[in-house]
Amino acid sequence: MPHIRPVSDLRNKFAEISKIVHECQEPIFLTKNGYGDMVVMSIEHFEKLQFENEIVFKLREAENQSSADDRRYSHAEVFEALRERLADGQKV
Predict the structure, then answer these.
(1) Do residues 39 and 10 touch, judged by C-beta distance below 8 A?
(2) pLDDT of residue 46
(3) Among 1, 2, 13, 4, which residue's Cα sits nearest to residue 37?
(4) Count of alpha carbons within 13 Å of 27, Cβ hemisphere only?
(5) Which residues contact 39 (CB under 8 A, 6 or more apart)?
(6) Could you confirm whether domain 3-41 is CATH 3.40.710.10?
C-alpha cells in the first residue's frame, strides 16, 4: 500500500519520513491541498529504479535489433567471438 502524506509532514516530520523511506525502500507520495505534488524516496531506491529502467531500455533495444536482423548465433559462437576480442585486447 502506498505511503501518502501531506507535504507539511516533510517539514514537520522529516525524521519520520526519512526513516520510512529507508526502512521500507518505498517512496512516499506527498500531497498539497489534497492533490499529488511530489514523491520522496531514498537514494538507494532511486538508483535501483534507474538501474531497472536501464535494463528494460537495453532489453527493448536488443529486441528491436533482433527483429531487424534474421541472423542468430549459438552460445558457442558468441563466446568464441568474445574470447577472440579479449585476446586481441579489444573492448567487449
Answers:
(1) no
(2) 96
(3) 4
(4) 13
(5) 27, 28, 29, 30
(6) no
Tens digits of residue pLDDT in 63-89? 999 899 888 899 999 999 999 999 988
User: From residue 14, how far is each of 9, 43, 74 by CA, in Å?
Assistant: 7, 15, 54
Residues 23, 35: Cα–Cα separation, whole Å: 25
CATH 3.40.1620.10 occupies which residues in the chain? 3-41
13-29 pLDDT per residue, tens: 999 999 999 999 999 99
Q: How far is CA 43 from the centre of its chain?
A: 12
Residue entry with cell 517512496: 27
